[in-house]
Amino acid sequence: MMAEQTWPERAIIGFHLDEENHWVADLECGHTRHVRHNPPWQNREWVTKLETRRLNIGKTFICKKCEPL
Ligand SMILES: [Zn+2]
Questions:
Q1: How far, in Å, is the centroid of ligand 1 from the Cα of 41?
Q2: Residue 35 DSSP symbol
Q3: 66 Cα: distance to centroid of ligand 1 (angstroms)
Q4: Fewer C-beta neighbours within 10 Å, C or N terminus of the chain?
Q5: Can you give the pLDDT at residue 60?
Q6: d(Cα 40, Cα 17) in Å, to the nearest integer?
Q7: What is the C-alpha separation between 13 and 57, in angstroms, rounded?
């Protein structure tokens, strides 16, 4: 049986738009993660507004680009 892998949680330090105009979160580890607002599948209206993006700075995402713990 394979051991279950877990990845570290990394804080969001900023956001930027990619070349296709999708929002990307910049994580403290230097990796990035898409935070697409693509309703009805992905509903993240907060990411479309500067005010609510700011509120999410410092929140954490599991970073699967980092080495598993
Ligand atoms: Zn990472």
A1: 25
A2: -
A3: 4
A4: N
A5: 96
A6: 20
A7: 6
Q: Is the dihedral of CA 34, 9, 45, 53 positive or negative?
A: negative
| Percent of the chain's residues with pLDDT above 70 | 96
Q: Torsion-angle region of residue 21: left (phi > 0), alpha (psi -120 to 50) or beta? A: left
CB atoms within 10 A of CB 41: 6
Dist. CA 29 → ligand 1 center (Å): 5
Task: Give the mean pLDDT per block of 10 residues along the chain (69 residues).
Answer: 84 97 97 93 94 97 94
Q: Count the neighbouring beta carbons within 10 Å of the beta carbon of residue 10.
A: 21
